[in-house]
Amino acid sequence: MTPGLYVYGIVETGSLTGPLGTGGITGNAPVLVDVDGLTAITSAVDVSEFEGEALQRNAATPQWLEDNVRAHEAVLEDVLERATVIPMRFGAIFSSHDGLRSMLTVHAPALRDAFARVRGRTEWGVKVHCDQARLVASLAGPPATTSGRGYLEQRKAQLDAEARAAEDAAAVANAVHQSLAEVADEGLVAHAPGNEVLNGAYLVRNDGRERFMRRVQELQRSHGDAFVFEVTGPWPSYNFTSADVGGPRP
Amino acid sequence: MAVVQLHQRRCWGAAPVTADLQRQVTLLDLVDRIIDKGAVVRGQVVLAVADVDLVKLDLNLLLASVEALQGADR
Questions:
Q1: More exposed terminus of chain B, fewer Cβ within 10 Å: N or C?
Q2: ipTM score of complex
Q3: What is the pLDDT of residues A96-128, one digit of tens each?
């Protein structure tokens, strides 16, 4: 057993009141560590589970990964509605309290900037999926007469609609993103796989949530059945605190 | 984590979403954020960059099976 300190996230000292949850990474309960006005939410862990062969074994075990990814998120969600939190990426483990203290001291200015950016705000995810068949049908319009000419016209409309569908979906995704960015402090678009046309993340003021949700509902209504909206949140601001806190990106 | 479905996902096809699928869909969102986003610290961190990539690699395998499940629903 090699003792280490897993860090979930950082809050401003004093901003977090009340008890922490009992669950945590690899089953270890979260504990607060204060350093000069910043407070790290940590759990004592056995570093040997996160190194070498043990890590290879653990990372290849879906249940281990799922349990620990969920534990990381659960600890942050428990504090999310009570304090502004800078979420750490999965796997930030310090070998000692001194190592953690030195990181918090050295990177205090960057962390303060990060707090200024996300204080009083949380992240919301909006995905828009496109039902290709419905979209093509709506672009092609209603079937015409049953005559031979009507059939040919209908066939042409169908082909035109298929050709226009991708362009139309991209235009809808762009319009939705612009519209949501108006009611958020910041917005960004991530890669959208498969039938997803938009995978957006939005930093929304906590007192602006209703407005944001109303906007999502308006957009869903105005873009019709071919587009399916899915909203997740509130999340810790993972997408808006991704700046490195200690060195260059790999 | 609240997932607000403004439209029922079943409009994708005939099969309704099972509780298990819903659980995995949220895991996809989780992994999307927790493994790829969030503040990164270098220096005193024990878990080496290469090891984080290893975790990510295996998570990608896990997610591939999640996506296969989602695909089956559509």
A1: C
A2: 0.75
A3: 888 888 888 888 888 899 999 999 999 999 999
